[in-house]
């Protein structure tokens, strides 16, 4: 990797100030960033370690669960509060990577990176969560703007994510056997905002909501309600792991499994 300066600020204000340097990069769990540095695909002037900002927490706030931006995947998977209130989110977090990744990777880091095959974007979008930063609140429908692209400013930090507690939720994923990223992942949720279905790992622009599935499940929340609904392959990714047509098929399979699990 290239040379860089290292800073570990003690306050959010100091972190934001350091990230005002256009060549600075934030370090959360490092599961994507460190390999990029090692491969010399990024050359930051300064790496800003945000692990000391007090952003690791899980707490109930009214009808929502607030999760700190530096909360690890393993903590989310094991949280009694989340397992009881949003079981689909706990299940999803427990399927990310392997044990090492789950004990290093963070919620905020994943959302800031917005990898098109990451799991959290599907959960955030399906649950209609709110991304809270050092300066504003961003709704899930406005946050995700394309592959590796979000509404965040360069010096903006995710401090927490507020997940509304749904009446039902579940996640199903067809995993790449090597990376365990989602070749297709489908998160379904039903709550005060109605039925929301989000798909990750398949869209050319990253995570997306499946309007046809949402409409069918709003009328009848059952796996059978999705029978005969096809996902157009033209808007999906095709690569060495799966063609767009196969991903279109997998979306239907994963969605039916997700709904079945949510009503079980």
Q: Averaging pLDDT over every residue, what do you get?
A: 96
Rg of Cα set: 18 Å
SS class = alpha+beta
How many helices? The count is: 11
CATH class of the domain at 168-263: Alpha Beta
Name the helix and strand elements from N-terminus to C-terminus, one letter apiece. EHEHEEEHHHHHHEEHEEEEEEEHH
How many distinct beta strands?
A: 14
Runs in which pLDDT lies below 50 for 5 or more consecutive residues are none
What does the secondary structure layout of this molecule look like, with pairings?
Elements: E1 5-7, H1 12-18, E2 24-27, H2 33-38, E3 46-49, E4 58-61, E5 64-68, H3 73-78, H4 80-85, H5 87-94, H6 99-102, H7 107-113, H8 120-127, E6 130-133, E7 137-139, H9 140-143, E8 144-146, E9 149-150, E10 158-164, E11 168-175, E12 182-191, E13 194-200, E14 208-209, H10 211-219, H11 244-263
Describe the overall structure.
The chain has about 260 residues and is of the alpha+beta class. Among the domains are: about 1-50, Uridine Diphospho-n-acetylenolpyruvylglucosamine Reductase, domain 2 (2-Layer Sandwich); about 170-264, 2-Layer Sandwich (Enolase-like, domain 1), CATH 3.30.390.50. Helix content is about 30%, strand content about 25%. The chain has helices at about 10-20, 35-40, 75-80, 80-85, 85-95, 100, 105-115, 120-125, 140-145, 210-220, 245-264, and strands at about 5, 25, 45-50, 60, 65-70, 130-135, 135-140, 145, 150, 160-165, 170-175, 180-190, 195-200, 210. The protein has a 5-stranded antiparallel sheet with strand order 4-5-10-6-7. The chain has a 4-stranded antiparallel sheet with strand order 11-12-13-14, with helices on both faces. A 3-stranded parallel sheet has the order 1-3-2, with no helix packed on it. The termini are far apart. The mean pLDDT is about 95.
